[in-house]
Amino acid sequence: MIADDLLIPDEIILLDSRGWDEQFLGFQPTTGFASPANQDFKRACDLNELVVTNRDATYYVEMTTDSMVGERIRAGDRLIVDASRKVVSGTLIMAWADGGYRIRRIQLLDHISVLHASHPDYPPIYCHEDGDFQFFGVVTFVFFPPYQPTQDEL
């Protein structure tokens, strides 16, 4: 059996809204005419508005394998999954298959679904209608840290 692709937190937490601290951004309260640019930083930065279309059906998971490295998804990356999205052939999905949670690109055929990894060490998973397969959602966003080169690479 292959290791699970995902770490699913015990509790699903979406990012909380919070306002920006004006002093942190270098703005000081004025006693005269305020700069019009200050108003742009008073609005809360809310990633939910950017990545969530259906709050009740959206959750995040952490990738734990490199099975999708060809899609630039690596172990440690965070994925936003929307369970309300319709799955179509070619979609990147989260599913229960082959005894674990998987992130794969799905190919829908007549009576079978094929889950494709993007790493040569992970063979396709063939899911029959009566088999051990459950669709959980469509991957809508992937968050990953920027590449950090070593001193030798600089």
UniProtKB/TrEMBL annotation:
InterPro entries: LexA-like, LexA/Signal_pep-like_sf, Peptidase_S24_S26A/B/C. SUPFAM superfamilies: LexA/Signal peptidase. Residues 28-139 form the Peptidase S24/S26A/S26B/S26C domain. It holds the Pfam family Peptidase_S24. It comes from the Bacteria. This is Peptidase S24. It comes from Larkinella humicola. The lineage of its organism: Bacteria, Pseudomonadati, Bacteroidota, Cytophagia, Cytophagales.
